[in-house]
C-alpha cells in the first residue's frame, strides 16, 4: 500500500503549488489594478515580485514580462521595455500582445520595417480590427520613411553634381600672354655697316627665314598674329 511518507510528500507539494498559485494571482491582480489606475511604479513593483513567485514557469513568466513591458512603455523606458518583451517572446512566442508591444517600441525608434514585421505576425495570430489598424499605420509610416530617404538621396546626388560642375569655370578666350618676340635693332645696324650680325648672328631676313618666312621681302615690322586664340581656364574659388 501507499506509505504515509509518500502521502505526506504529495500533500506538501500540493500545498506548495496552491500557495504559489495564490501568491502569483494576488501579485498579478495587484499589478493589473495599479496599471489600470495609472500607478506605474506600483504596477512595475507588483509584476517584478510576481516573477519571483515561480521562476521555473515559463508560460507565467512570459505573461508577466509582457505586462511589465507595457508599464515601461507608459514610462517611456524603451530599453527596459524591449528587454522584457524580447524575453517574453523567448519564453512564449505565441502571444500576439507581445508582438504588438514590441512593434510600439520599434515605431518609437523609427524602425518601421521591424514594426511592420511584428504587426504582421500579430495579425496572423489575432486578426482583430485594432491589430489591423495598427498594421496599416505602420505601413504608412514605412512608406513615408522610404520616400524621405529617396528624396534625401536625390538631393545629395544633385548637390554633388553641382559641386563637380562648379570646380572649373570657363571665362572665354584670350590673347593675353601671347607675344611674338621682336628681333633686335642692333643686329640691323651692324649689318648695314659690316654686312653681318655681331658674333655671326643672323639678319632680319634670316631671322624670319628660320621662323618660317619665305624671303626677306615678306618681312614686316609687325609681329605675325597667332594661328588661333588660346583658351584659358581659371579655377574657381572653393565653396
Radius of gyration, CA atoms, in whole angstroms: 46 Å
Question: In this structure, how is the largest beta sheet organized?
Answer: 2 strands, antiparallel
Q: Strand sequence of the main sheet, in spatial order?
A: 1-2
Q: N- to C-terminal separation?
A: 98 Å
Strand runs, count: 2
Structural class: mainly alpha
What's the shape? elongated
Helicity level: 55-70%
Poorly predicted runs are 170-175, 192-209, 211-220, 226-239
Order of helices and strands: HHHHHHHEHHE
Q: If you average the pLDDT, what whole number results?
A: 79
Strand content: 5-15%
Structure description:
The protein is mainly alpha-helical. The protein is about 65% helix and about 5% strand. The protein contains nine helices and two strands. It has a two-stranded antiparallel sheet. α4 packs antiparallel against α5 and α5 packs antiparallel against α6. The C terminus is likely disordered.
Q: Which features does this protein show?
A:
mainly alpha; 9 helices; 66% helix; disordered C terminus
Short structural summary:
This protein is mainly alpha-helical. The protein contains 9 helices and 2 strands, in the order H-H-H-H-H-H-H-E-H-H-E.
Amino acid at each position: 500500500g501507499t506509505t504515509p511518507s509518500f502521502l505526506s510528500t504529495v500533500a506538501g507539494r500540493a500545498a506548495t503549488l496552491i500557495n504559489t498559485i495564490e501568491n502569483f494571482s494576488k501579485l498579478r491582480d495587484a499589478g493589473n489594478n495599479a496599471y489600470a489606475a495609472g500607478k506605474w511604479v506600483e504596477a512595475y513593483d507588483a509584476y517584478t515580485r510576481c516573477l519571483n513567485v515561480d521562476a521555473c514557469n515559463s508560460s507565467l513568466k512570459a505573461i508577466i514580462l509582457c505586462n511589465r513591458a507595457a508599464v515601461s512603455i507608459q514610462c517611456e523606458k524603451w530599453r527596459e521595455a524591449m528587454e522584457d518583451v524580447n524575453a517574453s517572446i523567448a519564453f512564449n512566442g505565441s502571444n500576439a500582445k507581445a508582438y504588438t508591444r514590441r512593434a510600439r517600441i520599434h515605431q518609437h525608434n523609427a524602425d518601421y520595417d521591424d514594426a511592420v514585421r511584428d504587426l504582421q505576425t500579430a495579425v496572423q495570430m489575432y486578426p482583430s480590427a485594432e491589430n489591423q489598424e495598427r498594421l496599416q499605420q505602420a505601413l504608412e509610416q514605412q512608406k513615408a520613411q522610404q520616400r524621405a530617404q529617396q528624396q534625401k538621396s536625390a538631393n545629395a546626388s544633385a548637390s554633388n553634381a553641382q559641386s563637380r560642375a562648379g570646380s572649373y569655370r570657363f571665362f572665354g578666350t584670350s590673347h593675353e600672354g601671347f607675344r611674338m618676340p621682336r628681333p633686335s635693332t642692333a643686329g640691323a645696324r651692324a649689318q648695314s655697316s659690316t654686312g653681318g650680325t655681331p658674333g655671326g648672328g643672323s639678319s632680319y631676313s634670316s631671322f624670319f627665314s628660320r621662323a618660317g618666312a619665305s624671303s626677306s621681302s615678306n618681312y614686316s615690322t609687325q609681329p605675325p598674329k597667332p594661328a588661333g586664340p588660346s583658351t584659358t581656364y581659371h579655377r574657381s574659388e572653393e565653396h
